[in-house]
Amino acid sequence: MDAEVLIHTDNVEFFLLLKHILETEGFPARICVDPKELLDAIQTEKAVTILLDCSSGGEEAPGLCRQIRTAAGDEVTVAALANSLEADLSRDLHAARVDTVLFRPLKPIVLLSLLKRLHTKVPHDPRPRAAPELIFRHADIEMNVTRVRVTRNGHPVSLSALQFRLLLHLMRTPDIVHSREDLIAAGWPREAEVEPRTVDIHIGHIRRALNRYGPNIIRTVRSVGYSLDEVAKPIHM
């Protein structure tokens, strides 16, 4: 299997930037939003490098790094992205056997240095390589996480990065009613102060974007939250 870089982050825009840099250097990249997905991907994708984005709160990162080492061994290069003021976190990450801690604002020369070290680990293959695509499907909706693309009945659906994260959270477990607090945790950084009403507004944007190409599929559970219907419901005018 071709070499792969796994990027653990909930920031889709940041992932796209790193994906472009890495694939320019010949390393297909895949996003892993939650730890379980990352640990599963280590077993299936045989990654040579893992990038952990700890910049939005890395309290759980050292523990995750230890799990990565247990799952992948020392053959995998693990790099963490942290805020420059988080000295304690940096020490904890190194203690958890992280190979490199990259600080924000990210300096391209530091990332390129990491890539050069990767070239010494991975046999050169001049043939173009394509990253495996992570795709979620529910009813007539398809979410391609790798390409950051949403379609419904074959039509592209335009969403912001935040709305993409919210819909992805619903698509992962569509039969569960997700509270507004769950959606805030999935869509916004930990330090953000978000009112529940803000979630309703963005869900409304997602609903209107999806409804352009099919009937209503987002179910509102009053005083609880949102889920996806198994079969899209007609919109009553």
TrEMBL record:
The keyword Transcription regulation applies. The modification 4-aspartylphosphate is found at D53. It holds the Pfam family Trans_reg_C. SMART domains: Trans_reg_C (SM00862). Keywords: DNA-binding, Phosphoprotein, Transcription, Transcription regulation, Two-component regulatory system. One of its GO terms (biological process) is regulation of DNA-templated transcription. Residues 133-230 bind DNA. Residues 4-119 form the Response regulatory domain. One of its GO terms (molecular function) is transcription cis-regulatory region binding. Residues 133-230 form the OmpR/PhoB-type domain. GO terms for cellular component: cytosol; protein-DNA complex. It comes from the Bacteria. This is Transcriptional regulator. It comes from Rhizobium fredii (Sinorhizobium fredii). The lineage of its organism: Bacteria, Pseudomonadati, Pseudomonadota, Alphaproteobacteria, Hyphomicrobiales.
